[in-house]
Amino acid sequence: MEKTIVLITGCSSGIGRALLSHFDREPYRIVATTLPNSANAFDGDPIAQNPRFWIRSLDIGNHKKASQVVSDTAKRWGAIDILINNAGISYRSVVEDMTIEDEQHQMLVNYLGPMHLIRECIPAMRERKSGRIINVSSVGGMMAMPTMASYSASKFALEGASEALWYELKPWNIHTTLVRPGFINSLAFRKVLYSKKRQAQSQTSPYDSHYKNMAGFVEKLMAMSPCTSESVAKSIFKVARMKKPPLRVAGTTDARIFYFIRRLLPRALYHKLLYVTLPGIRHWGK
Ligand SMILES: NC(=O)c1ccc[n+]([C@@H]2O[C@H](COP(=O)([O-])OP(=O)(O)OC[C@H]3O[C@@H](n4cnc5c(N)ncnc54)[C@H](OP(=O)(O)O)[C@@H]3O)[C@@H](O)[C@H]2O)c1
């Protein structure tokens, strides 16, 4: 393994930034992408001066630019060995408040963009009969919660496609893995997006209780979580080094627990249980 070329998306903050510290060792050469308006995130960062790192600006929704990043990397260093689709956004909105543009934005960043990058990387991996694709999913890709329909839909889509890819690419020794973090003790909740309709709403929305209770609930669970962006990055790095990585990996301890709850409880009971534990549920819709 003289050199391993890794492409990681969404590196300006959170898990993506933490991943760079893990890959900051031989034999990795890392193409780290950031949103164009976050290009200054690496100002003064020694990583930007390290010849094994190449910081590129990329909006994952810009397919042409994504293809360009892959082909530029091939010219400079060679084909990508490990693709880590980490970039993601999260709309916090009830279904009724989402517009078609909001839905498209959510799907573009969390599903269509990653799928395009995967398609760009597969041919060279197939030729070399080696490669790995790591898609950062979420517990939201296994269980849906109110105000997170679109986010869950995008991660469910990523999960479905990754499962199909696992079968499709295994004959060429290309491993596909989904890493599912649950609640992370980070400030990522500050970046949640609200649909235009929600932003324009006054306090009289019939969904006020949904929004208020869910936001507080999620922020509280995130603040209580012992898992951090660094610990999730560590799990992803471990997957990148495994000989035979599994299709699904829990990125946090709660993700493992949620997985068993979802798997073991009968569906009807699971939904009922989740419903009654939603904060302030008796007051929703009143
Ligand atoms: N935090 C959690 O609790 C949690 C839980 C489960 C799963 N996840 C998943 O983990 C992944 C990383 O999230 P994180 O927690 O590290 O949150 P984060 O700090 O918000 O990181 C997300 C990264 O994606 C980038 N990004 C956003 N839109 C993009 C676009 N259109 N094109 C390219 N990059 C874009 C962001 O860039 P900017 O910094 O410039 O905005 C940021 O670097 C995501 O896929 C997320 O869904 C997170």
Structural summary, described in words:
The protein has 286 residues and is of the alpha/beta class. 47% of the residues lie in helices and 13% in strands. The protein has a 7-stranded parallel sheet, sandwiched between helices. It has a single domain, classed as Rossmann fold. It has helices at residues 14-23, 46-49, 63-76, 100-128, 149-169, 196-199, 208-224, 229-241, 253-264, 267-277; strands spanning 4-8, 28-34, 53-57, 82-85, 131-136, 174-180, 248-250. It binds NADP nicotinamide-adenine-dinucleotide phosphate. The site of NADP nicotinamide-adenine-dinucleotide phosphate has 30 residues, from helix 1.
Oligomer classification? single chain
Compounds present? NADP nicotinamide-adenine-dinucleotide phosphate
Q: Structural class of the secondary elements?
A: alpha/beta
Any idea what the shape is?
globular
Strand content: 5-15%
Number of strands: 7
Assign a percent range to the helix content. Answer: 40-55%
* First-last Cα distance: 62 Å
